[in-house]
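Can anyone check this?
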Amino acid sequence: MTLVNLRLQAVSPTAFASRALPTRAQGAPKPIRRRKIFIGQEYVDLPAHARAELCFGHEIDGPGVIEEASSSLVFPAGWRVSVDAEGNLRVEAHG
């Protein structure tokens, strides 16, 4: 007899683990470079930020680019990207 696959799932109630909120970043993040993006019928020169360098509390007003290894987020003027306490990017219309 040969065992090919074995799966095990264990479930146990646990106490709620509270965690402290991360420290809020102070000031605006600095772009790592400028990047030309083709939008509509023309190239636009935008500030580019590294996703790995953005922390809780950072806010960036558009237009701009946030670069990651597998994707880029391009956001126009009138939009703001903020990083929440979980590290998520929130994109919202601003002003």
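Reply from J.R.: I decoded it. The chain has no helices and seven strands.
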